[in-house]
Amino acid sequence: MEPVTSHSEREWILIGMAERCAAQGFAATGVDDVCAAAGVSRESFEDLFVDEADCLAATVEAATAQARQALDEAISPRQSWAANLRDGAAALLGFLAARPALAHVLLIEAPPAGGRAAAVAESARGELLALLERGREHATEEIPASAGRGALAGAEALIARQVAAGGAADLPAVAPDVVYMLAVPFLGLGEAQRLAAGANRRRHLRAVA
Fold first, then answer.
1. What confidence tens digit (pLDDT) does each residue in 115-171 have?
2. Which among 8, 49, 199, 207 could disulfide-bond with 54, CB atoms 3.0 to 4.6 Å apart, if both were Cys?
C-alpha cells in the first residue's frame, strides 16, 4: 500500500496486513504476523484495531479509496461512456498491477472473509456496476437486466485468476479482454472489439513512451 502521507503506525499495520494476506491468506494471518510484518508492537495494534477482521476491513477500505481516486482521475464527463470505460479499466488494472498485495486482498481475501471487509468490497463493486450500467443509455437494442452484472462478474473473475496465479504485475496486458467483456453487452460485438483494440494501442503507447 502506498499512503499519500508519511507512514503512520496505522498505515504500516495496513501494509503488514496486505503483505501477510498475500503471502499466506487471511485465514492463516494472526495479529502477531501483522505486527511482525509492520514492525509494531501488539499493543500498538490493539490500540487501533479490535482484531484481524477489523484490520482487514480497514485495509480494504483504504485500498478501495485509493482505487476510487485512480478511477476518478482517469475518467471525465467530457469523454464518452465508451472512452471512460476504456480509460477507467486501464487505470484500475494499473492500480492493481502496481500493488500486488492489495490486489490479492481486494480480489481473493475480502469477498470470502465476510463481515465489514466483504461489505466494503461489495459496495465498491456496486459503484463500478453503476458506472457500467450507464452504457444502457448508448445501447441500440434492449439489454437484459443482468447483463451488466454478468459482464462485471466475468471481468472480475478473469482478473482474480491472474492475481491468484501471481500475475498481478501483468494485469495491464489483459486490458483489451476486460474492456471487451465489459463493453460487449452495451455496444455489441463490433464496437466492443474496436474499443478493446483501442485499449491495446493505448497500452502499447504508454509502454514505449
1. 999 999 999 999 999 999 999 998 878 899 999 999 999 999 999 999 999 999 999
2. 49
